[in-house]
Each structure stands twice: as structure tokens, then as C-alpha cells.
Amino acid sequence: METDFSKVLVTGSSGMVGSYVDFGIKTDHRSLDVTDLSEVLRVSEFYKPKVIFHLAAETDVDRCERDPEHAYLVNSIGTYNMAVAARNLGAKLVYISTAGVFDGTKKEPYTEEDEPNPQNYYGRSKYLGELIVKSVLKDYIIARAGWMFGGGPEKDQKFVAKIINQLDKPEIRAVNDKIGSPTYAKDLISGIKKLLVAGRTGIFHLSSKGVCSRYDVALSIVKSLRPSVKVLPVDSSYFKLDAARVCSEAMISKEDLSRPWQEALEEYLDTEWKPFLK
Question: Whole-model pTM?
């Protein structure tokens, strides 16, 4: 079945990932509160989308740890509301999940078949969202990503932006004892579009190819933007964070939909950051 991208209802379109969505009916938290079921049903009934692209989420891992009720309200109940709307309309739901659903103890990268076992409130609230989607719907895409970057100076509040914003310092510290698979939000959107066009259903890992530490990512950023800055490796106890981070958020995909993280990061820095940096 051909996907009509004008008939896609997008939640959370003003966020980092949403900034790469160039199709559909875009809503954000001002025009659609995903935690309000009656509002969700009213808006979805008005637009009658064929696909609901559910990007709205609380992705601040430490805020989720400090306020679990908020995490579950947005990431779990909000997802339930969108799943009910999709079911009522016979629409497909695309739900963005996370490598944070895993416990981080596996030596190899996690596959789509591995059993989730989240270790913090963010991971638990997102995994509950996955379970809800699978129980309410038959036609869905659960797209897991991790260590997201994208959005440029305006939207990026994640690790890459935090490193870039320290480039005026002689030294930057970055953690080298935790690993993951970064995801360029632009590539995430293009991968999901391909899955939609192909009519696929199920769980897919859509992070970039490869595994690295935060230290490796910081080294790549510095090499590209400010080679004079020194990057110092530290272990995770150096930064006092509210939520525990697992040892590994590395993922591998059953689909060939992404490129190496180094290539994706280089394009991101070249196209979205270098024009703004003196």
C-alpha cells in the first residue's frame, strides 16, 4: 500500500526529531496535548490520518528520574492515547523508543529480539509505551534509537551540543566507560519513511551503525570543529546525574537503513553547526 505522507499526523513536531519531518499534519504540545485523551481523539478524528507519527515524549532522562509520574504520563499514557486514536481510525502508529529499554549488561550490541529490562524511569516509561503499542495495535512501527543528535544550534540540547558549547575551553571531559550507538535524527526520519513505504510492521533498531563511547564522539567533534581542544576521558562517576546510565546502549539492526555514526555526525557538524561557529 502506497503511503500518502500528507495523511500523516505528527505529534511533537517542534522537537529535535520533528525538525526533520517535512511532511504531514504537524502538531506540538500547544496544538495537541498527548496526555489528554479527549483532545487526542478529537484532533485525530478531525484529521483522520492514515498514519500517526508519535514523536512527543519526555526525553530528559534525569528529569524522568526526578519526576517518574511525569515520565509515565507523557511517555506511557500519552502513547496509550495515541494508540487508541490509531486503533479507532484504523491507522498505523509509529512510536519512537530507545536503547534505554535494555539493561546494558550484554557484551554485543542489542538486537530487536533481545529482551528489554530497563533500569531507570525513562527506560521503563518508554518500554511501557512499547508494550501498550503492541497490545492495542496490530499495525505499528516501534523505532528504537539511542544517543540522539540533530536539530542544530536551535534544537539540540543533547550531548553533541553540550560538547560544542564547551569548545571555548582548553579541555573537555567526556565519559569513556559507557558505550552506545548514536542516532542522527535526520537519518531516523528517513529510515522510518522507508519502512512506511515498504509497509513494514514491528520493532526496528534505527540507530547509526557502529558502537562508541561518549569520549569517542567528543573526539570526533573536536577533531572536526576545534582540533586545539583537548578531550580528557573520565569515568561516569565524574558527572553526578540523577538517573543511572547502563554500561551499554549499543544496538544493531536487522535492516540496512543507516550509515556509520562517524559519517552521520560529520554531515551534521558540517551542515548544521559550522555555518554558525566563528
Answer: 0.97
